Amino acid sequence: MKKYASLLLFCAGLALAQPTATGTGGAAATVDALATRAAMEILAQGGNAVDAAVAAAAVLGVTEPYSCGIGGGGFMLVYLAKESRVVSIDHREVAPASFTPTVFNGPDGRPIPFAERVNSGLSVGVPGTVRGWEEALRRYGTLSLGRVLQPAIRVAQQGFTVDATFAAQTQANLERFRYFTSTRDLFLPGGSVPAVGSTFKNPDLARTYLLLASGGSRAFYTGPVAQAIVNTVNNPPVAPGVSANIRKGNVTLADLESYEARIRPPVQSSYRGYTIYGMGLPSSGGPTIALALNLLEGYNLSTLPRERALHLYLEASRLAFADRNAYMGDPEFVDAPLSGLLSKKYAEERRKAIGERAPEGAVRPGDPYPFQQDPSTPLRPQAQGTRREGESTTHLTVADKEDNIVSYTFTIESTGGNAMVVPGYGFLLNNELTDFDATVPHPNSPEAFKRPRSSMSPTLVFRDGKPVLALGSPGGATIITTVLQTLVNVLDFGLPIDQALAAPRLSQRNTQTTNVDGGFERTPEAQALAALGHRWAPLAEIGALTAIAFNPDGTLTAAAEPTRRGGGSAAVERPR
Ligand code: GLU
């Protein structure tokens, strides 16, 4: 989404509207020109990649309020160049103490309709974003939270120009935004969708950011903001006359106060001599991508006819999703058999399940237990179908001149989260807890203090210890295939990053049909694949990837979508 601060429309802003930029120094790619500008501003002030990433994220909380913000959570992957080390910061939302495996069942014991789960207090996880930002800055940044929030405070106060994507997303949420007085007041000024070209300000959010700037995360997790979150979840601000069944949640101040971000080791794997770092559980993103790449490593994709390579890509993804759906959940609750799943020997065995044709319907998960270093875990879950997951979320990628890199995906789950703005504070709450599986028992079943399984996949690729690529995307479970396909496009097909991310996407997630975008279904490859049993389910667009490629000549290329979601914004400090 391209946006411009209404008061700041000058040449630099226009340059930031471009989706690809190559040069030296630091670089940033986000879905939004103002967020990219904030990252570049902080880099220019001497901040590092972590400082710049948080600054950009805070701006996205203003300009992309339906996709992300302080009412949600996320996963940040950080490469610390001096220490040659990758760390991840899990600030995923967590279920409150009151949560139970049957929380989403109605009085008759049957699951309540999905739409009613989304627009409820029940689906709100304790937000992790603010603690994540603070941990990131405290451990790995060089500037204060107060300092890096400045660009976002400015954008929230001065406003941004409403574009077609923002208007369309508001329109798509019209009915449920009308359910809540606070949401109506903020996002439907005068009762209707803000006009394209009008200026949208969020003074409440500016004030909330100012509270965080002076009080740090305590100003969010305790005191008036925490109380307002609890009130909103437990007594949603339903507008008079609304007949929809809006369920109350049960979150306490203690749930808020005890929220912790987790510093976790990333998932490390290898692919044709590259080292890949991904986000580990509770995100299934890193392990599922590693699993699929291990399967693909058995074929020489670069020399095969393209339709054969794509068939293998689709089938590897199908098998990886079968395992993801069966085994993965919050590692603090479940012993997922990761060492088995990610072993090259398991991939050798599992590869035998890839046939010449697409199978009819879902495939069963494999058995990783014989390949576990610790074969003690007895749980052998059944195959699970793929659930509907949101298509909201945003990803940003930043590098600084010292080669520190941040690959950061964060979200409020559905586009528009649970549709409740916290009254007086200017941000939407998440519905992240709808990411739990309703099936019980299951590694991803709802439990108190548990983090729902995610698909978010911030990823970093290295060769011989040097960065090659940083990338990630929104898109619910399609995030995994978007990142996987882009890796294949770059590492196997040799596409430059801008072409790799603009290419039509194919997303196979162990279902009968494969989602595609960009008109893929009309190509000769699609026809050849259809003859092998592949069935297409076209979508208007899949994902909104941002990336930075570290080129062999020492330059960097920052890249965002040329068209998806209205196009993104890339910049480098010193353009070539
Ligand atoms: N809730 C999803 C996840 O964690 C992200 C939602 C989205 O990308 O739309 O995987």
SSE order and pairing:
Elements: H1 11-16, E1 20-30, H2 33-44, H3 49-63, E2 73-80, E3 85-91, H4 114-118, H5 129-140, H6 145-148, H7 150-158, E4 160-161, H8 164-172, H9 174-177, H10 181-187, E5 199-200, H11 203-215, H12 218-221, H13 223-234, H14 253-257, E6 262-264, E7 267-271, E8 274-278, H15 285-296, H16 306-327, H17 338-341, H18 344-350, E9 394-399, E10 405-411, E11 459-463, E12 466-472, H19 478-492, H20 497-502, E13 506-507, E14 513-516, H21 524-530, E15 535-538, E16 546-550, E17 556-560, E18 569-575
Parallel strand pairs: 14-15
Antiparallel strand pairs: 1-9, 1-17, 1-18, 2-3, 2-10, 3-6, 4-5, 7-8, 8-11, 9-10, 11-12, 12-16, 13-14, 16-17
Helix pairs in contact: 2-3, 3-7, 7-11, 15-16, 15-19, 16-21
This protein binds glutamic acid (GLU).
Structural class call reads alpha+beta
* SS summary, helix count: 21
Q: What is the averaged pLDDT score?
A: 94
Task: Describe the largest sheet.
Answer: 13 strands, antiparallel
Low-confidence stretches: 5-14
Strand residues, percent: 15-25%
Count of strand segments: 18
- Helix share bin: 25-40%
What's the gyration radius in Å? 22 Å
Q: Which ligands, by name, code or SMILES, are bound?
A: glutamic acid
- What is the total number of structural domains? 2
Distance between the termini: 24 Å
What characteristic shape results from the CA principal axes?
A: globular
